[in-house]
Amino acid sequence: MASCSSRVILDLLEKKSMSQAALATGTGFTPSYVSQVTNGKKLPSSGWIDLVSSTMNLTTTDDRKLREAAAYDLAERTY
Q: Which residue in 48, 9, 6 sits closest to 26, CA to CA?
């Protein structure tokens, strides 16, 4: 099941013409972890989002969009 944050990450990867493998390499996380996040099976941690933002050189707007989506996902899973 896709989550809000997974859709945002997939959109950003497409926008930046970046593969999940390149994102994994840039963040230092495994391709498996990146796949789980982009498939909505895992919620991204704030530390991972920091690394994604840096690796993808996100604008303030895109960074905020990703953080808000992750916060929404976390709130949804809490209830």
A: 48
CB-based contacts of 24, cutoff 8 Å, min separation 6: 30, 31, 33, 34
DSSP assignment of 4-66, as one string? HHHHHHHHHHHHTT--HHHHHHHHT--HHHHHHHHTTSSPPPHHHHHHHHHHHT--HHHHHHH
pTM recorded for the entire structure? 0.90
Cα separation, 17 vs 15, whole angstroms: 6
- Tell whether the model's pLDDT for residue 79 goes beyond 80: no
Tens-place pLDDT, residues 1-60: 678 999 999 999 999 999 999 999 999 999 999 999 999 999 999 999 999 999 999 999
Q: Which two tokens stand for residue 54?
A: 């840096």
